[in-house]
Amino acid sequence: MSTTLAGMLFIASLIAAVALVWKPFGDHMYRVYSTTRHNRAERVIYRLLGVRADAEQSWGVYARGLLAFSVVSILVVYGIQRLQDKLPLSVGMKPVTDHIAWNTAISFVTNTNWQAYSGESTMGHLTQMAALAVQNFVSAAVGMAVAIALVRGFARRKAGTIGNFWVDLVRGTIRILLPIAFVGALVLVAGGLIQNFAGPHEVSTLTGGTQAITGGPVASQEVIKELGTNGGGFYNVNSAHPFENAATWTNWFEIFLILVIPFSLTRTFGRLVGQVRQGYAILAVMGVLALASVLLTNVFELSGNATVPQAVGAAMEGKEVRFGVSNSATFAAATTLTSTGAVNSFHDSYTPFGGMMTLVNMMLGEVAPGGTGSGLYGMLILAVITVFVAGLMVGRTPEYLGKRIGAREIKLASLYFLVTPALVLVGTAFAMGSAEQRASMFNSGPHGLSEVLYAFTSASNNNGSAFAGLTVNTPWYDVALGLCMVFGRFLPIILVLALAGSLAAQAPVPAGAGTLPTHRPQFVGMVVGVTIILVALTFLPALALGPIAEGLS
Amino acid sequence: MSTPVLEKRRVGGGLLDPEQMIRSLPDALRKLNPATLWRNPVMLIVEAGAVFTTVLAVFDPSFFAWAIVVWLWLTVIFANLAEAVAEGRGKAQAATLRAAKRDTTARRLKSRAATEWDVVGAPELKQGDLVIVEAGEVIPGDGDVIEGIASVDESAITGESAPVIRESGGDRSAVTGGTKVLSDRIIVKITQKPGESFIDRMIALVEGANRQKTPNEIALNILLAALTIIFLVATVTMQPLAIYSKLVNPGVPDSLALNADGVTGVVLVSLLVCLIPTTIGALLSAIGIAGMDRLVQRNVLAMSGRAVEAAGDVSTLLLDKTGTITLGNRQAAEFVPVDGVSEAELAEAAQLSSLADETPEGRSIVVFAKQHYGLREREIHGAEWVPFTAQTRMSGVNFEGREVRKGAATAVMKWVRDAGGHPTDEVGHLVDGISASGGTPLVVAEKGRVLGVIHLKDVVKAGMRERFDEMRRMGIRTVMITGDNPLTAKAIADEAGVDDFLAEATPEDKLALIKREQEGGRLVAMTGDGTNDAPALAQSDVGVAMNTGTSAAKEAGNMVDLDSNPTKLIEIVEIGKQLLITRGALTTFSIANDIAKYFAIIPAMFAAVYPGLDALNVMRLSSPQSAILAAVIFNALVIVALIPLALRGVRYRPSSASKLLSRNLYVYGLGGIVAPFIGIKIIDLLIQFLPGMS
């Protein structure tokens, strides 16, 4: 079997697997978020937190709860890192330096999981488990909660409330993430991943040197790293490490975990708004963009259009031999399309256009299918903007799912799509404008520019993957990228919740022949077009001076 | 569109002559004042860019820089021109109206009973003043006729030269200041406040003096502002990247586009102006003004732009049966004889009884008898006509010993019985049958026996069914409002093809129906003329009052139809839709244009440092300078080219949302992508020979 064919089968089987669980899993999430019953564990948590679980919240209260929870989370993660030498299971690790601790705390709370540190030499086991892995769960649940709140805005009629943040957070964690993570971790252990509390272990390498390899609770962290589209690896080399990703089939399974929630949430969306076909439409938009991206990344990598790859016969630099070019490219596309940021190969070593695809995937705004929850709400914002322009063209005040898109709605949606590109571009401009920051670049020329652009794109879009090649654990980068992560996460969330509140308050307009249908291929095509054009228009100058200049040289 | 009247009114309203452009030029220049321009953020940025590049060109002159400066200024001027031309058309109309607003004097009565008056200037009249107006005089202010009847020439407002009747009481009591009484004498109670007459409001409206942005326009402006900010960020943040790129390629010589300080100011501004949505930004307010103007040209005055926009959103249309769906009057459709009477005999009696009946129903009986039974009208002498009264509820004739009557079934049957006749059950069945089918039965009798029944029917206007089908395709539900009983109403509703009807409607029912529809999230449009329509007009989202109606109705509605043609509601809906479509289409076009501009400007800026980027120069433009200038020129010219479209509105054909979208996407989306590639290439071919272009 040729490698290309194997790669295609790999992709096809992934699509089949996601398609298979889409309906039952999406329906399960629908029930989780719409039932009125609390289970015993949840009741205990609500009592401990002092939450009135049956009280609905306005968008403002919902947002305040979310922000308060996130601030506390950041402080806790920061505190644990700084005090880890005084805590058990430190395996001899020193306290994390202040700027890295701040960057890491923000990184994990914002579901970015950008790693300015090297896991096996910086973080103790307790830090990994109590600080980082906990955030892997709850930051994913926060994203899902926001998405569900927005969908409720569409579904509700003249309502002042959009749900209860604490309930959504707890349910997402306990009923969706934990059970899958438990089963998934066992599967990964069976696949060869490790799960222990061992400390550094000296081994002799083939070349005769020695290397310290740290053991740890890897499988349990690996599974939620993918499932919650987090991406922060236990080891510095992330999913390229054999203890994190042992073989082709664990590679397949990890990609499946990455994709399953973001895609299945479209089903949940369809159920919640009472029109399953609307869910199909959003799924189709995500699917078209994702498939196109995966295939293009594969094409660029397999054609190996650069000097070195042509010399050695394949673009193998920075890729693991056990995965090969295609399965690495597919992983790279999946991880950048979903705001996961886990890597099993080094994007910095990709062909210029292959590397550009990973950049473009993130620049899409993490919507195809995007992060857990954030993908759905980002895509719905794009649908709102599409509906606005398209709706005018059919001669009516634009409406989506029966809700009018008026001045307030378009203001919130416009601000949403302003935030991340502005952060990316302004951050990149500052870094490139300063000789001191440019010194962090490993390469010069357009490739060096791509490295910086990638870092800011990844942080602002809460992806967290690194192009590598850029020394980012300097105070300046830690602070700048930390700010990008905070603003790139919470400003959009506040805008989305405000939009949810404004939509929920409306009485829906009944659909008629004059209403723009938003479930047909026509609309799917428009959203795809709007997404691509918005990204192209915003980032083309920067891309032209980075990967495009490199690729066309 | 089978009714010729409608067809005639649909066209026109958008043609633009070059002379108009030239005439509006001074206005366009005046609008360069930033204090005026700030309302249009997109164009304000272009103007700021034009000022900036002018300064740069002064200090570092080159032909290229000055060419860019000139075309940037032209871009702003073209945008202003679009608005000025749109406003200019309103101004012409306002001038006509002003001519009608001559300063008149009024004869003000001291009280209703008084016979003496004092003469005051029209502007001094207050609400509640009584004035007396006689033939040949101009009515000094808006008001209601409280005494008398007169024919009035309202051509000053409606443009219609045929005089109309205005009389006290009823729904035709309103008169408008500035119109002229042609005959008789009326007493008018002034209802306007000083300086707020109908004509004043009309002038303000057509001039767009206090034009407010409409909700969708505001929303679109926000989107455009957001896009502008994005492109501003994208352009400004490109500068450090450009400086870096130049730095790492030290061998590349400086050019007009790129030097060690990065992209030159002139080129950076050019890129920004090309990217921000200038096309729609330039035309947006012209589109709004022209939309109002299209209504005015159809003799509809919208009190707010909001109402025009709401018209496009309407999903329920309430239409009065009489005058809108049916011709005003019922007409004879059938003669049904009873008890062995021949059809000819019945026809003859029916015709005889109606010869002197000047009501439309009576005329229609005579006409029907002539058309279907060959009975010609005849002059008869010595006949005694019995007129219809509310008490007898029948009319007829006594002639040569015959007594013939026609009228309401109960009245005529009673008359027959009183004369000793015994009408059979057959008559009753017939009458019920006709009523059930929606018709009006008139029983014809000759002393002591019933001859038969005349079937009077409402006649649905030609072309209405097609119109309603069209509405349905547009997603608009039509509801017929009638005072008829449900049976009659249903029959007419079926025949006309409306979706629903409200029978035996009282003003309260109407109001309740509107509220019910609105509760379900639908927008409702209706027309009305009577005072009892006022609450419903006020409640509806689009309330079109007939100019012939009462002042209360005109006050309550948000539009006034000067032609008093209830069918016009349908056109108003179409104009509302067209307004939104035009905005959406030009926005799409504007954004789609950017793709080609990138392909022109990016290689022009950076191909010197990265020769590979020349592959993006797919148009094979001759030089960096000519590529950038061509993009800027195209960007400016496309505004001028689209002014006529903005004023006329995008062609609108009633059809489903999906079809409309497909069509507009092809024309303005795909067209918007392709057009600039061609346009920029052509401009490049023309300007490549200018100095400094290579």
UniProtKB/TrEMBL annotation, chain B:
Q: Does the keyword Membrane apply?
A: yes
UniProt xrefs under HAMAP family: KdpB
Stretches assigned to the P-type ATPase A domain: 105-207
Q: Which organism is it from?
A: [Actinomadura] parvosata subsp. kistnae
Question: Which residues are noted in the entry as ATP-binding?
Answer: 357, 361, 388-395, 406
Task: Report the top EC class in one word.
Answer: translocase
- Biological function: Part of the high-affinity ATP-driven potassium transport (or Kdp) system, which catalyzes the hydrolysis of ATP coupled with the electrogenic transport of potassium into the cytoplasm. This subunit is responsible for energy coupling to the transport system and for the release of the potassium ions to the cytoplasm.
SUPFAM superfamilies, sorted: Calcium ATPase, transduction domain A, Calcium ATPase, transmembrane domain M, HAD-like
CDD domains the UniProt entry points to:
P-type_ATPase_K
The text of the family note is: Belongs to the cation transport ATPase (P-type) (TC 3.A.3) family. Type IA subfamily.
Topological category with respect to the lipid bilayer: Multi-pass membrane protein
Give the Gene3D superfamilies listed for this entry. Calcium-transporting ATPase, cytoplasmic domain N, Calcium-transporting ATPase, cytoplasmic transduction domain A, HAD superfamily/HAD-like
What GO terms are given for molecular function? ATP binding; ATP hydrolysis activity; magnesium ion binding; P-type potassium transmembrane transporter activity
Which NCBIfam families does the UniProt entry name for this protein?
Answer: ATPase_P-type (TIGR01494), kdpB (TIGR01497)
Please state what the protein is called.
Answer: Potassium-transporting ATPase ATP-binding subunit
Which residues catalyse the reaction?
320
